[in-house]
Amino acid sequence: MGYYDYYSSYPNYADYYDYGYSSGPDSTIAVLGGTILGTIMGIFLIIGLIIVILQLVGMWKVFTKAGEKGWKCIIPIYNLVILFRISGLSPWIVCGYLLTFIPFIGWLIALGIRIYQCNSLAKAFGKDVGYTIGLLFLPTIFYMILGFGKAQYVGNGGFSTTSSTSYQGDGVVNISEKPVDEPPTNNDEDNSNL
User: Would the pTM of this model clear 0.85, i.e. be above it?
Assistant: First the structure.
């Protein structure tokens, strides 16, 4: 008995281990299910990218209305620093987002910071609580409304003054009071001509 005759009588490896690589109706259903799932995930990815692009366009316009360069909204953490500065808040509050690594308590703190920032941003554009709620729940739409709408950046505190206020983009707000020129009220000169 030779080598080939001895080992050819053993059963095949695939006879013991069936991994289901058949082309029966079960595999057709699996392929169809995978195709449908992949298509749905692709559609969600495209919709998500469109939402992100629209929000970046809206933020770009909000930044330029506030006197900042628009490209600053693209850089991930730097855009939050600038957004806090536009809102009239300390940029160091961004460090509070580091607390999100603490479960539950950190999330509540981050939510509080987000609500405070949205409220301050709405006030910086002279808007009310409705815009705060809109910025919280539909930020893409409300950044587009603030950026492309008639809203004007009025600065920190959300109230416009009679003085000329200009935001210089580096965290410095220049407020220069214009003196009112009043004519002299010396009645002696007027009586001398009589």
Answer: no
> Is residue 16 in a domain?
no
64 assigned to some structural domain: yes
Domain range spanning residue 122? 25-176
One digit per residue, pLDDT tens: the chain, 194 residues?
A: 666 666 666 666 666 665 555 555 677 888 899 999 999 999 999 999 999 999 999 999 999 999 999 999 999 999 999 999 999 998 888 888 888 888 889 889 999 999 999 999 999 999 999 999 999 999 999 999 999 999 899 887 554 443 344 445 545 444 444 445 555 555 555 555 55
In a domain, 10, yes or no: no
Instruction: Domain count for the chain, please give it.
Output: 1
Residue 43 Cα distances to 40, 48, 49, 114, angstroms: 5, 9, 10, 29
